[in-house]
């Protein structure tokens, strides 16, 4: 009976892996097809000839190098900002005592239930009011803090004994010195995971850049995929080539640091 159960479990894992990986494999293969092959019905899975020229043509259709630099800059900026604000906020919730702490915590927990789409329009009005449209500030400022990451790191910091903080205060350390010399070194797995996930979120940003930028030179790499759609149709093979270029840096980043990400998630107590 156990062998049958193991076989079914492994078979289910294989099926799920195929379902998950197929879109990526098909995207890669389609990026090497001709337009006729990419749009054929029934769909063709294997290109008759590897057309690597699709990548060069895709880059000539849109300023992808500019999009790439924009995405790198905004993703790194929002990641650094998120790490700073998250560390300070999580430290305050775990180690400090202040009036209204419980109610503030409940309020922030309630914010986790608010859909992202609801906050988009409020953020847009704020950015427009301060005349920050079509600037890097518009792409960065709304993403400098995350309630989710605050609670994520808070769960990790609660595992650090309060005696460490008390001992540091006795030795004359300020709160910032404790954060820099004790808390951050002990929280590296969680901070590393937060940094990677925050960077991936910034890299994949699509809706917000469209709302706050009219100048195409301010767009991010995900927005560049629309360059292959026109009234006459979509150049599917070029769009797939651009999509492959856009997604591969993130896949490489994940596979290189997957162990650190999993370690940070497991030690924080957050699963799934």
UniProtKB/TrEMBL annotation:
Q: Where are the transmembrane segments?
A: 7-29, 67-91, 103-124, 136-153, 190-211, 238-257
This protein's GO CC annotations: plasma membrane
Location(s), subcellular: Cell membrane
Record keywords, A-Z:
Cell membrane, Membrane, Transmembrane, Transmembrane helix, Transport
GO terms in the biological process aspect are: transmembrane transport
Output the superkingdom of the source species. Bacteria
CDD domains in the record, alphabetically?
Answer: TM_PBP2
Ranges where the ABC transmembrane type-1 domain occurs: 68-257
Has UniProt tagged this entry with the keyword tRNA-binding? no
What family name appears in the similarity comment?
A: Belongs to the binding-protein-dependent transport system permease family.
What name does UniProt use for this protein?
Carbohydrate ABC transporter permease
What is the protein's species of origin? Answer: Helcococcus ovis
